[in-house]
Specification:
Layout: H1 21-43, H2 47-68, H3 75-86, H4 98-112, H5 120-130, E1 152-155, E2 162-166, H6 173-185, H7 192-206, H8 213-229, H9 238-244, H10 246-257, H11 264-284, H12 286-297, H13 305-316, H14 325-332, H15 336-348, E3 352-354, E4 364-366
Antiparallel strand pairs: 1-2, 3-4
Length: 369
């Protein structure tokens, strides 16, 4: 099994990362614009809508970050654990096991305390939470000691392994982590989003723990991104996007580890991935934003509870089939005459429109005008 000896952490000028600022200026500006636009839109929503969006983003972050490493968590348990810890009132919460609670604890500690500095104590605490109840062969809550041999990232069958990466020796870890923590906590002129990209790369290069380095690297990136937004509220999931681009993620990490300390390509990929994560969230939240605009526009109208209930079903996109007076009556538990009056009133307000087919097949839809 061949082990490549030349990695960036062995270069003479390690860890003096550098990048082409001009090449990153446009993608960085685009990401910053999308960050601000998403936060602005979310702040315009009601509390319950913001809470539900944050709950979904955090659930995706926890589930997908573990999935990248091949560990499958129950999304409903994760959702329940997050909701309980954030005090979000959600119906039908499931009990969550110790493993799920530990991963959730790590993620929330990282993002909810974004304004606290990153320290060895915090990282060791995250690792202990992440591996709560772990098998005895995992060194928990301490830097690795390499007693089992060099820390390597390997793939392939036994005897035909391919070494993707060899981390710094254990005796270097104290000094390496001290330098990393000093850099990430210091104020400077590097944009916080770019710092998030460097934090992720630098930590995963050192690989200080016996296991869980990828998940903790992504938690550090989330901590750094929360700092870039000066907000503990998470409305998008970087890990969910990395999971979609898993092959590209591992490819760019491996290329970067075997290249030079010019990390422009890694930074460009990180910014692109973040951009796509935010853009995907904006698309997914399109119906929520549309629904919010709808109710703000029609706030002066004195609509009854039946009308509000049916309109919400239509706005949520989960109304099955065509809207007719008989279906309205069945869902709202009212008479045909009442359902007809409700519909006519909404047509008069310009909210509903009668569809082309008439007679017994008359149906109605939201007015698109």
């Amino acid at each position: 099994m061949q082990i490549l000896s030349r990695y960036i952490h062995n270069l003479p000028d390690w860890p003096n990362f550098h990048w082409n600022q001009a090449a990153l200026s446009n993608p960085l500006a685009e990401v910053r614009l999308k960050q601000g636009r998403l936060i602005g839109k979310m702040e315009g929503l009601g509390f319950s809508q913001r809470a539900e969006t944050e709950l979904q983003a955090l659930t995706d972050e926890v589930v997908k970050s573990s999935e990248i490493e091949g560990e499958i968590l129950n999304p409903e348990q994760v959702r329940s654990s997050i909701a309980r810890r954030l005090g979000i009132d959600v119906a039908g919460l499931l009990p969550s096991d110790r493993r799920v609670d530990g991963v959730v604890q790590m993620m929330l500690e990282a993002t909810q305390n974004f304004d606290a500095p990153l320290t060895k104590k915090r990282l060791v605490g995250w690792h202990s939470a992440l591996f709560s109840g772990a098998p005895s062969y995992v060194q928990v809550g301490a830097w690795r000691d390499d007693a089992k041999g060099p820390m390597q990232v390997v793939s392939g069958a036994i005897g035909r392994e391919r070494v993707h990466y060899v981390a710094p020796e254990a005796e270097r870890l104290e000094a390496e982590m001290k330098a990393f923590l000093e850099w990430t906590n210091q104020a400077g002129d590097v944009d916080p989003v770019l710092k998030a990209a460097i934090d992720h790369l630098w930590f995963v290069t050192i690989h200080p723990f016996d296991d869980g380095n990828g998940r903790i690297a992504r938690a550090i990136a989330d901590w750094a991104l929360a700092r870039s937004e000066k907000s503990a509220r998470r409305y998008y999931s970087m890990s969910a996007q990395i999971r979609r681009e898993r092959k590209e993620y591992y490819d760019i990490l491996e290329r970067t580890q075997k290249s030079s300390l010019d990390v422009t390509d890694w930074m460009r990929w990180f910014l692109g991935c973040l951009d796509r994560a935010i853009a995907g969230t904006e698309i997914a939240l399109g119906s929520i934003f549309q629904k919010d605009r709808f109710w703000k526009t029609h706030a002066p109208l004195a609509l009854n509870e039946r009308q509000r209930m049916i309109l919400n079903k239509l706005l949520d996109g989960n109304f099955v089939g065509k809207l007719t007076t008989s279906k309205w009556a069945k869902i709202a538990k009212c008479s045909q005459d009442t359902s007809h009056r409700d519909i006519i009133e909404l047509i008069q307000h310009g909210i509903l429109a009668k569809e082309a087919a008439g007679g017994r097949s008359t149906s109605y839809s939201l007015n698109k005008r």
